[in-house]
Design a protein that fits this description.
mainly alpha; 0% strand; elongated
Length: 197
Amino acid sequence: MNFEQYTDEEIILLIKEGNQDATEYLLKKYSPLVRKSTRTLYLIGADTEDLSQEGMIGLFKAIQNYQTDNSASFYTFAKICIDRQIYSAIKASNRKKHSPLNSYISFYSRGSEDETELINNLEAGNDSNPEHVILDKENISYIEALLEECLSTLEKAVFHLYLDGKSYSDIAASLNKPVKSIDNAVQRIREKIKKLL
């Protein structure tokens, strides 16, 4: 089935009818969005692979919970759910309440031959409640605003280029600075982000 001819909202309807291929399609389609979100939050100090798994869980919850009569597009809803899932994992990890980032298993693993894959047993939880999602989005926006205030001109430039996916050497070339200066700026940014959490 060629899902590219459908809107995201139409694909969600197919998923609700039980089309597993449609779920796979949306997970693959939005995996770059997960990568972009994890790149943003990697600065806080978590491992990118751990954050990617959290982001994929957020994306899966978005797929399960999105209502096609929602005024927000699926893209907007997915972005909020992904960011919230990652942000919540980092907050929990920083509080040391538990260590979810150290004990993951694949979505596609089976406990035994006759068990279904984990991805088929996941259910969307209450933490995808739109009210909670919006509140967390406001918290993230608040932190971003505080961060903008405390970064130097160079750090802001490095931060925005880094979030666009540029490598240290690309950023150095764009800003006409040594790579070591870029690395130092990123380390300072990470420290400032940690202080805001």
